[in-house]
Structures are given as structure tokens and as C-alpha cells.
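I am hoping you can look over what I have pasted underneath with an eye to the fold:
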Amino acid sequence: MNTKTLKSLTVAVSLVAGIGTSSMALSAVPTVEAVGRGAITTCPSITTTGQAQVYHSDKIVFMIANGNLQPLIAADFAALNAMPRLTELDIKIRDNPLAVADLKAKLLFFVGAANTVGNRALIKIVNVLYATAVCPKAP
């Protein structure tokens, strides 16, 4: 085993041991969200919270190329594939600003399509816009 490999192995083992033994170890890498849910925002009652809450959503403008999308539920095949092709469409989904968004996965989940290589190839994301809603805080 050469010195470079031994050093790399030592660093890797040390990192794993340090992270494994620390209950406070947190990853600096954000999670990846792949589930798209509607961007419906309802502010909590002002009396139940002492702080303002901020909600973030994305508007994903996309197009579906010619071809059949495979649905999450087989019975949805006809409805899913009746969606317009080669036309700009959009969805509005909730977004976690502390996570990385897999936009195609979120989009496919939202419309009821499986997250497959074939389905991803049929989706073209044209634009992404965002909005925030700030709920009032208690006095």
C-alpha cells in the first residue's frame, strides 16, 4: 500500500469514527427534496406563535416532450398522457429553503408520473420563479 493511499484511508476512517461517535455531528450538505406538494400557504393563528413564519414556494414552468409518461399509479396513464405536449405549463410547489430541490423529481411527483430516466427525459424546465409569504407575528 503506498503512502498516499494509506493517508487517504486514515483520513476516511478518522472522519467516519468522529462522525459516528458524535451525537452532535450534523452534515453541512443539505437534504434533497424530491416530492412536490402544492404551494398552499395558511398562516397559523397569531395567538399560537410568538414569531413570524415565512413560507417559500417555487413556480416551475415546464414543457412535456412528445412521448408517454409512465404514471405512479397505472390507472392514471390516460389522464397523465392527456396533458398538453410542447406547451408551457406550470406548477406551484412548496419549497424548503434549507434543502436542495430536485425540480424534475418534484415536478414528476406533483403530476403523478414516476421518477424514471425516461420520464425525466420528457421534461424540459423552462423557468423557475419563487415566492415567499410572511405570516404576521404575535404582538
